[in-house]
Amino acid sequence: MPARILILTTTGSWGGTENQIAHQARHLLAQGFQVTAGTLMDGDGTLLRELSASPEITTFSLHTTMRTPWRVMDLATRLGDDRPSLVIAYLFHPYLVARILGKLFRRIPVISSFRSGGQEKWRSFLDRMTMPLTDFYVVPSEDSARFAREELRVPEKKLRVIPIGLDIAWLRSPNIPREQTREQLGLAEQDFVIGCVARFHPVKDHETLLRAFKELRGSEEGKYSKLLLVGKGEDDLKVRSLTEKLELLEHVVFAGFRRDLPEIYSAMDAACYTSRMEGLGNAAVEALSVGLPVIATSAPGFTTYLRHEQNALLAPVGDPKAISRAIARVISEPELASRISRQASADALERYSLKACSTAYDALIRELLGSPP
Predict the structure, then answer these.
(1) Pairing state between β 136-139 and 58-61
(2) How many C-beta atoms lie closer than 10 Å to residue 259's C-beta?
């Protein structure tokens, strides 16, 4: 009987983590493992619908909510019934319950995947307290590794840095021409389109992005600029309200949640990310991989792989004027934009392929379970 691997995450809503989980689940299935993917909360269910295309992958949601947190105990029953050989748990709540319900009571090995550059003190306390119950602690960047060492006191023997894996060939192969995608989005060919693919969440700091765009629109360089916002989330109404307040509605396109990322990226002229903190920043790496000039904040996570004036332009966190100036440089200095784009594309291809990520996780699995079937 092949070993069963359970991949556990917080929600079924789609994002960078869920994208990696989908690729990982299919890879492990191809390696001969039985694979189960579970979520603590439903979210919009995109992840589980995505995996349902592979009927060999078992999926479930615990349907946990703020009012019914005890449903997480259903995981204990499932662990007892299914008895997975290994749990790979992404994000804080899943790896906390996996350590307690899986490792402590069921003696099931656990790989914890931390996806940020920091976290609240209470989370760090619980992380440290349960650290003996995880076999490996995986982080996506050196910034995250530094936090893990200094704040979480993760032993070096457990700590592993594994960057995200991207299907770069897919991202670089849009199915329809750029002009057609732009037309669908209401963008003209003469528009200089600055894109941001990110959930609407406080940590992504869309407010700084919008204020920077307002500044840019008032400059000579930015008179033909448009802002393309791709995503959704808890700050959706707040971001739209601020867009209206700044009188930017006719210059900002809200594209919502999109799966056609190759087409979306092909419609952009540059990508801009104003996060206050990142584990790595999946969307920024995607923008690098398709050769877009990237403007970003010097936030933890980004600074691991973004180098100012080499493969990106960086600006201080929360500084709209600096972000605006950086975008203006990309518009007014095409040679600079071309140079950083070429370097960005090469860096992404070298470091962030699906193969590199899968190979690194395979090594951890072999160490815990022995050779794959």
Answers:
(1) unpaired
(2) 11
Instruction: Find, among 119, 67, 64, 113, the residue nearest to 86 by Cα.
Output: 113
Instruction: Give pLDDT tens digits for 98-133.
Output: 999 999 989 999 999 998 777 899 999 999 999 999
In 3-state terms, what secondary structure has residue 318? coil
Would you give the DSSP letter of residue 104?
Answer: I
Strand order in the sheet with 225-230: 252-256, 225-230, 192-197, 270-273, 294-297, 313-315
* pLDDT for the residue 233: 85
Query: Under a CB-based contact definition with an 8 Å cutoff, are residues 60 and 36 in contact?
Result: yes
Kindly report the number of other CB atoms within 10 A of residue 55's CB atom: 7
Yes or no: say if 225 and 192 are a contact pair by the CB < 8 Å rule: yes
Q: How far, in Å, CA of 283 to CA of 285, rounded? A: 5
| Domains of the chain as residue ranges with CATH | 4-165+353-369 (3.40.50.2000), 168-351 (3.40.50.2000)
Check: CB of residue 256 under 8 Å from CB of residue 232. yes
CA distances from 322 to 7, 216, 268, 318, 325 (A): 41, 10, 21, 9, 5
Long-range contacts of 95-102 (CB under 8 A, 24+ apart): 95/8, 95/134, 96/126, 96/127, 96/130, 97/8, 97/40, 97/72, 98/8, 99/130, 99/133, 99/134, 100/130, 100/133, 101/72, 101/73, 101/75, 101/76
Tell me the mean pLDDT in the region 240-256: 96
Q: What is the pLDDT of residues 346-373, one digit of tens each?
A: 888 878 888 888 999 999 999 999 865 4
3 state DSSP class of 19: helix
Confidence of residue 341 (pLDDT cuts 50, 70, 90): very high
Strands 225-230 and 252-256: parallel
253 contacts 214 by C-beta, under 8 angstroms: no
* Structure token pair of residue 42: 């439903």
Which candidate, 307, 364, 367, 362, places its Cα nearest to that of 30? 362
Cβ pair 87, 109 in contact under 8 A: yes
Q: Is 253 exposed, middle or buried (0-12, 13-18, 19+ CB in 10 A)?
A: buried
